[in-house]
Amino acid sequence: MKTFLKVFCIAFICFMVAMSAGVWGFSKYYSESDSDASIDSEENKEDIKYEEFDNRSELKKMMDESKRINVLLLGMEGPRTDTIIFASFDPESKNVDLVSIPRDTYYERRQYRDPAEQKINAVYGDDGVEGITKAVRKVLGDVPIHYYASVTYKGVERIVDSLGGVEVNIPMNMKYDDPYDKPPLHIDFKKGPKVLNGKTAIQFLRFRKGNNGGGYPDGDLGRNKAQQEFIKSALGKALGFRLPVVANTVVKYVKTDIPLSKIASIAKDAVGMKRENVKTYSIPGKAVMQNRLSYFMHDKDQIEELTKEIYSGGKYEKSGE
Q: Which of 6, 69, 94, 119 would you call most buried, defined as having the most Cβ atoms within 10 angstroms of its Cβ?
């Protein structure tokens, strides 16, 4: 089973930030008054609607009052989504929060008897973008998702190459061979600093354990930390002088329904964003065996707490604390 390719987050960063290089001049032709009026109109409606009696939940209030832009990021492997990430951008704080949804997350679909069809990564092949968007919204407690963006493995590799490589610190010697993979996978890294190109970046991010076992001492937690450091390093490169090159690559390999005018607006809001503005999370839960398959069972209550933390900008305090 292939591991998560969180490098896909680079596509989001490039898409939201590097696209400014290509559309910055174009954005001046768009009047922000229309969009602002639309937002004000919606806010006025909400004020009127809840003026007398507001029975919304605490989280629903946060969502309604927020100006966050949420994008569903999909890393594609044929008809299945090998990587699913909920990305939330706050134009006021310039914070980007990335929440990974494990591909094995249990998502019940009673119309299918095959146990494998109860995994969230199978939804796209049957119901497309609309289906996977609905599934992620449900898993995350009905959080709004405004747009989507998808990329293939080839696209990820090309985007990393357009960055001129990404410097990482290899935490241990990594050696793994899988001759049956398509194409065959061969990983051979020595511990220490190394600049990864697109091909070797994919290898680094896919590594879980060596030929003789072992791997990260703290398992997937250690692997996730290594991947997150890679993302931050890539972001540092993406925000540099290579913006035009990266933007051109993203245009070729990323599919999205974000309108060009919105891209220009987001890019403008993202100016000045630093890699410290990016935070990464995994949804709370645990792995279980069911129907002879491994599923990730998400914890709804803890997910709600996580969502409140994101929407409050890290200022949310749990009741009783």
A: 6
